[in-house]
Amino acid sequence: MAGASDLYFRQIAVGQMANFAYLIGSLSSRQALVVDPAWEIDGLLEQLDADGMQLVGALVTHYHQDHVGGEIFGMRIPGVAQLLERRPVPIHVNREEADGLRKVTGASESDLVRQDAGAKLDLTGLRIRLLHTPGHTPGSQCFLVEEPGQHGRLVSGDTLFLGSCGRVDLPGGDPEALYTSLNQTLKPLPDDTLLFPGHFYASEPYDSLGNQKRSNPFLRVANLQQFLQFMGG
After folding, report:
1. What confidence score (pLDDT) does residue 1 get?
2. Widest CA span of the chain, in angstroms?
3. How confident is the model at residue 87 (pLDDT cuts 50, 70, 90)?
4. Which of 93, 152, 177, 191 pairs as cysteine with 135 (C-beta 3.0–4.6 A)?
5. pLDDT score, position 233
């Protein structure tokens, strides 16, 4: 029987593009990380404060403005820059994505921790694995939250959605890389892993990875050629 969980985990809907931000931490240490800080920086920090959690860093799935802040479609979205003004914490980003993040947000090199594929972050009983999943962007990454005796939780950004996957028609998009990320990095994870996407594009905010393997057409394709056809290539 699984013991009591030490996991602090909040999925928070933010902004005007159906984004999710996440707060992840350890209840025993009261330390937490924010995933994809954008749109409502003050609200995210107020939630952490109300929960008695100390922010010790930020995790970035990819550098698009709706996830990290910046200007898009004539809107100026608060994000990493505003977070750093209020709480100067390290921003963990995949090495392949760091230059794009700096360009979009204006963050300095000293603000960033350039992470390699497979890096791990530990928070008192919790481990967060940084999975490099290129395809949507070259440095897209997902975060696998692991706690002994509990189901894993996968925060997938724009790599994998409920019922679909990320687009590949923006600069840096690569359908073959996305196919590999889905089939060689994410699909082998246990079926009881809970999937938490970067956008609220489905009727439910999360699902089991096993159910997505059975129902998501982009995880059911037989081969790369079929996947490329699905992606319009």
Report:
1. 38
2. 52
3. very high
4. 177
5. 66
Q: Residue 144 belongs to what domain range? A: 7-157+198-207
For residue 110, which amino acid is it? S
Supply the CATH number for residue 130's domain.
Answer: 3.60.15.10
Apex 177 CA angle, 172 and 181, nearest 5? 120
User: Quick check: is 223 in a domain?
Assistant: no
At 209 the pLDDT is 98
* pLDDT per residue as tens digits for the range 197-220: 999 999 999 999 999 999 999 999
DSSP of the chain: ------EEEEEEEETTTTEEEEEEEETTTTEEEEES--S-HHHHHHHHHHTT-EEEEEE-S---HHHH-EEETTEEE--HHHHHHHS---EEEETTTHHHHHHHH---GGGEEEEPTT-EEEETTEEEEEEE-TTSSTT-EEEEEE-TTS--EEE-TTTEETTEE----STT--HHHHHHIIIIIITTS-TTPEEE-SB--SSSS-EEHHHHHHH-HHHH-SSHHHHHHHTT-
In a domain, 164, yes or no: no
Edge-to-edge strands of the sheet including 126-132? Answer: 120-123, 126-132, 141-146, 153-155, 194-196, 207-208
In the predicted model, what is the mean pLDDT of residues 7-29? 97
Number of domains in the chain: 1
Tell me whether residue 12 is in a domain. Answer: yes
